[in-house]
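Sequence in, structure out. Go.
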Amino acid sequence: MPHILILEDEPSIAESLIFVLQAESFSTHWESLATKALAYAKEQPVDLIIMDVGLPDMTGFEACKQLRKFSEVPVMFLTARGDELDRVVGLEIGADDYVVKPFSPREVAARVKAILKRMRPVVAVNESSPTLESSIHNLSSKPEHASEFVIDLERKTIHYQQQLLQLTRFEFCLLQTLVEQPGRVFSRDQLLNAVGVTADAGYDRSIDGHIKTLRAKLRAVNATADPIKTQRGFGYSYQPEVN
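Output:
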């Protein structure tokens, strides 16, 4: 049963979320202060945090920054502020979705489900695999795009050309989506949907910033490689290099 931490200082909103989430077979824990929620997240396993932006002791943005120092648990922001800049800032600091008040609790529950289901394997490295190095060696013997990337689903990491990439959760899902279907051109809306953010949430241009960051991280490993291509007027695609 997925466990959801709710950080919300308005009891009526928290109670409505608890009711709907529990009806969808989620377990829940509610805190009204960021400091208490952060302490709880350090001690208890949590699958997702629903976090209000306007909190009594600190902003949700600051709470998310502190959370990211020790956890990559998915975060959904709740806020009365619907400015595009606020939404982009929320994603940039590590949030996975951003819901503007007033909202339907059932919509929030649906988005929670989408976030928790969004990760799909490209190449799985698990405890049954002898070592990461042997997995990479086996892949390198195949003339396929997968030889460039290895995803460790247990640790939520991606290696590119045998080098570990330091990725946010959003970047992890974005890169996985592209690599999983080499050559396919994804629009911004399709990429948002693939990583669990609704296309109508106003984040489409934030994809450009995440792609720019991903490219920089890949070029730090191989300065001449350019596996993520811009398809002008359409979106982005992953083009594996042909050796």
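Check: The chain has nine helices and ten strands. Strands lie at 3-7, 27-31, 48-52, 75-79, 97-100, 149-152, 157-160, 163-165, 228-231, 235-238.
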